[in-house]
Amino acid sequence: MIELQHVSKRFGNFNAVSDLSFSLHGGQISSLIGQNGAGKSTTFHMILDFIKPDSGKILWSGKPLTPDAITDMPEERGLYPKETIKSQLLYFAALHGMKKVEAIILLDDWMKRFNVVGKSTDKIESLSKGNAQKVQLIACLMFKPQLLILDEPFSGLDPVNSELLIKAILAAKQRGTMVIFSTHNMDNVQKLSDYIVMLKHGQTVLKGTPTEIYRQFGRLRLDIEGYQNVERLKRIQGVRNVTLMANGVHLELNNEQCGRVIFAEVTKNGYVPVFNQHYPDLEAIFKYEVHKKAYARLSVSYTHLTLPTICSV
């Protein structure tokens, strides 16, 4: 288990990370999300012992963390452009104590698995950005680390190759690897994360399992197909916004209880094929947390703090 206990880091007057705490067990994946400059890379650098926290502890199974159990893929790529794929990966394999024959077999297997375009004898500088990215991912994954840190691993990958990476990360999870990754793609956060930490200006603004985070915001979105009486829906107290769609309507609600009233209204003349009351997705939650003060000034909120307690027609 890796555990961060009240970790903080300042650079002069700049507060990069403040009082950050979370833990991760074997076979779990945690995502670290936030805008550029939120403190994600600083957190990774502290875990890797590149920089020391000003306060707090980073522990590995209850003891101070040493970097030898960690494999890291930084946002800025660390490959040597004049070297071939093979020479570079064999060098990394030697550092991990792996035999040359075993490393060559693994390299060929991973190049096929990631559909790397080119030969192992090609120089890194001859590869496209996406293929160079895949080679660096191979350098992280082929040695089966206990803790894998991926800083923006999906950058430069198209949807097909992103899916290959997702499968590789999930396979590492099945082997018991702990994974911490950062990304701006909330779809990938939803697909992969057992635990989510969101930073904003170094402060932790959200953390928990995806279910715990969704429950903080409530099922305040509603999609209905087979009903398009927008004016009638707008008159229901507790409905904040109604958008007409091709086959129905999308609503934003002030509280979950409105769903029962709306269901009674739209089904009073019979069947509707879709009535889906759901949580906002992570992208909407991310945007809300980023712009929280602006939303508060506009009296627009997904939380229950300022919401009416009744819903009626």
Account of the 3D structure:
The structure is a single chain. With 313 residues, the protein is of the alpha/beta class. The chain contains eleven helices and 14 strands. A hairpin with a 3-residue loop joins strand 12 and strand 13. Helix 4 (129-141) packs parallel to helix 5. The longest helix is centred in the middle third of the chain and has 16 residues, at 159-174. The radius of gyration is 24 Å and the shape is globular.
Task: Quickly describe the structure.
By secondary structure, the protein is an alpha/beta fold. The protein has helices at 40-47, 85-95, 100-113, 129-141, 159-174, 186-192, 210-217, 230-234, 258-266, 282-290, 292-297, and strands at residues 2-11, 14-24, 29-33, 55-60, 63-64, 70-73, 147-151, 178-182, 195-200, 203-208, 221-225, 239-244, 248-253, 274-278.
> How is the largest sheet built, in terms of strand order?
6-7-8-3-9-10
- What is the rounded distance between the termini? 52 Å
Query: Sheet with the most strands?
Result: 6 strands, mixed
Low-confidence stretches: 296-310
| SSE string | EEEHEEEHHHEHEHEEHEHEEHEHH
Helix count from the secondary structure assignment? 11
- What is the approximate shape? globular
Q: How many DSSP E strands?
A: 14
